[in-house]
Design goal:
Immunoglobulin-like; 231 residues; five-stranded antiparallel sheet; disordered N terminus; 32% strand; alpha+beta; elongated
């Protein structure tokens, strides 16, 4: 009986010793690994707003959800649109970036823009006055793509997905219906302050006449077309 007790005691001591050795080995193994915090870079998105200012009616193009501290050291943008259907009238440097370069080629339907050393506001990098020249009033595409983005340390930033807008000359309301009298009414409401810019398609309205302006003449011409008095 005494022998059994001694064996049980030895077995218990052996088990406790083995457990202690195992725990120490695990602790030594964990200490060999360094905890690394990986910072996941958020993916920016293209921000496009229609606007009407002293330079005409066009698009403010910038970036949203961009996670950098102070500045953007470099960006390259490409605009792509239908031949002879859209005309880019100018590209303006809204962010006051240095070394601003623009190359407008309306014949091939492409525009390339580069800028460097942007400040800490990226929502409006450029303003692009455009006019829809498609006389058939069919829908036309206008694509915006960032080719290059670098942060203040010249590190590459994840590029946003390409964004494509659809324009239709005379389609003033932002809906999927056919061009009709409701579009003319919406244009008049905008002109007298009953609708704001976010409720209508400024470029579609300003392109009714080839002057890149918003006034009552656009609405009159649209109504004349709707009743067959004008092509």
């Amino acid at each position: 009986m005494v022998m059994l007790k001694r064996l049980s005691l030895f077995a218990l001591i052996f088990m406790m010793t083995s457990l202690l050795i195992t725990n120490n080995a695990l602790a030594d193994t964990e200490s060999q690994f360094e905890i690394i915090n990986v910072e996941v870079q958020s993916k920016p998105s293209i921000l496009i707003l229609q606007g009407n200012n002293e330079n005409g009616v066009g698009l403010y193009i910038g970036l949203d959800n961009i996670d950098i501290d102070n500045s953007l050291s470099n960006y390259d943008i490409e605009l792509d649109f239908g031949l002879s259907e859209i005309e880019v009238l100018d590209v303006l440097n809204e962010s006051n970036s240095e070394e601003f370069v623009q190359n407008i080629d309306n014949i091939s339907g492409k525009v390339k823009i580069s800028g460097s050393n942007v400040g800490n506001s990226f929502s409006k990098l450029i303003f692009v006055p455009i006019s829809i020249n498609n006389l058939s009033n069919s829908k036309v595409n206008f694509s915006v793509k960032f080719l290059n983005l670098k942060d203040k340390n010249a590190n590459s930033i994840i590029l946003p997905e390409q964004d494509t807008l659809i324009f239709q000359r005379g389609k003033i309301l932002k809906d999927d219906s056919e061009i009709g009298i409701s579009d003319a009414v919406a244009g008049l409401q905008y002109l007298v302050g009953l609708k704001d810019e976010s409720e209508i398609n400024l470029i579609n309205m300003a392109s009714i006449l080839p002057d890149n302006k918003l006034d009552v003449k656009d609405v009159i011409v649209l109504m004349q077309r709707l009743v067959g008095l004008r092509d």
